[in-house]
């Protein structure tokens, strides 16, 4: 049944990843700024800078004192630790995609193309093929640009419900339909007999838990796992349905677009990030992978009563509190387990949250940021998707095979490292695609065409360099 | 071949290195970054050296065997020199990084010393070098075949695995020595490292060669013949016939087929990889295997009814 493939993958997942591809970090700048302040002037009594927690200054100093010994490592280790916190999910996504490509032949079989890439690449002449792939890439990129602008316009005019509905439909599609197809193909590959009832049960559970984790509340690791899984699924769809030259061209063009959209003053993604910062809202959690706790702020709440209540509940999680003295608030611990709270205490220090402190939190004008952890780092899901597309395509079509895959993998990780370094220096949202994709593309073509013949000859003569 | 050889060779080649990684590097994020950056530097050096070699090969006559051999040796030497040059560049970069770390720290001491960095950089170089040498071999080891059926050495995979392990260690040690020499301005240490590297890379040449393509040697071995069986329909879109080796122990239809096969092996022709020129890789990708280890696909003679 799943043999006839969907030639028209709906626009929604595309939009999802296109929009997310450039967002890198929205709170990082403020946090690292605060961190630098703490480093240089240790006992500053200036609470206006600290945006992330609302507890009294003494607690901040207590926190700072506790980290005094490690403070010299704090700025770079903060960087190093968070580089690793992003390496791990990116690596996992790539591993899932490469493992699937290598074992499930469905994703390397040509079953037609998407409607966004209508021109075929089975042409007689090379020139015709090049022209077709350029046209395909142009169409795809313009679709992505149009939908990004549409999203930004919707966001600017506060059509939150439309955006929410859009995101929910697209994640429904990914979590149910695409994962059903994936599961079916995996079963076919390993010849596992399965009945529809069991599959329905599995997919239903998987999908519903995924929707809850991504759009509402859930354990952090589970949410991260689901985001990685949907990125991998989306990447597999792209690997299957994009013809070769088109895929490489799209990768190149989209990293240029990412650069423009995030850095130019009128770029749609930059406008999106700035609007979100002006309104002190977090961006859509369904599109962004966060390395620490992320909360869905009820953006659609207009009712002040409901907003206050929701702020109550969100700030309860914001203010790092291990033991709340308020019994009501204790009941609503937001799904935090005891272990998480203890872990948070270990990191930040036991801090009481009283109704007074929380009232102070709400009174602070700048404290609606839902990023409670100053060390949070965010990466858009589009970045995951395109990294995995690159590595997956490399493993699917390279003659060098594993060498090329490995080279692209290392290149992407180094690009990510460099991007994070730039982020630490410039402290504002940066596009994560350009450097990594450039390195990845260079290494793919170089390894496939130059290194592989060399390594073949070396292996033939058993040379070891 | 198959799983035993795959796992054996993997653990021989990469076991010690992964042990080093897990116990000394994995805990500290800074070291992981230095490791990956070291791997990157090695990769860039390999890229540049293979670019030079490629240009030289394209500019020369492809028919002349001796010239190609000579170009390859030149390529190897040039690659070794370039690797050491990039090791030096990496040393410079890490020195700058240490200065940065010291500047950022409060008490003027960096969280990682240059010796630790030297060690991690060496492991990074070694892991990448070993991975590039060994991974394609390991992937092919998963598939069916018989090593050395043409009369060549049966120990090809084993020797490759051991060589890879040795090379990873050597890169680690060379990294430490090299950085130490750079730190204390002892140029003789650096030259010693370069000479050692050149020696090791050149040593293997003249040692056991890869299996020959000599047609006379090929004809000496009596080859039984049997037809290759048609794939059953449920495996039409399965990646490769070599997966049978992975799944024969999991049950399924294969034990019965193997039983059938053993009862009827006689007088059959294997499909020679050398003839087809391409080996269906495990996990589905087509790869033009260099025909150097002379593997032959020996199919059990089994009557499969297309179902």
Description of the molecule:
Chain B: Keywords: Membrane, Notch signaling pathway, Transmembrane, Transmembrane helix. Chain B: InterPro entries: Aph-1. The complex is a heterodimer of chains A (465) and B (307). With 465 residues, chain A is mainly α. Chain A has a domain at 81-292. Helix content of chain A is 67%, strand content 1%. Chain A contains 17 helices and two strands. Chain A has helices spanning 11-20, 28-40, 57-66, 71-103, 126-156, 160-190, 196-215, 220-241, 244-263, 268-278, 304-318, 327-331, 338-348, 355-363, 381-397, 402-426, 433-460, and strands spanning 288-290, 378-380. Chain A has a two-stranded antiparallel sheet with strand order 1-2. In chain A, helix 1 (11-20) packs across helix 5 (126-156) and helix 5 (126-156) packs parallel to helix 10 (268-278). The longest helix of chain A is centred in the N-terminal third of the chain and has 33 residues, at 71-103. The relative contact order of chain A is 0.16. Chain B is globular and about 65 Å long. In chain B, helix 3 (65-104) crosses helix 4 and helix 4 (114-141) runs antiparallel to helix 5. Chain B has helices at 2-25, 29-58, 65-104, 114-141, 156-183, 187-203, 215-220, 243-247, 254-263, 273-276, and strands at residues 271-272, 279-280, 286-287, 296-297. Chain B has one domain. Chain B is mainly α. Chain B has ten helices and four strands. The model of chain B is unreliable at 210-221, 230-256 and 262-307 (pLDDT under 50). The chains are: A mainly alpha (465), B mainly alpha (307).
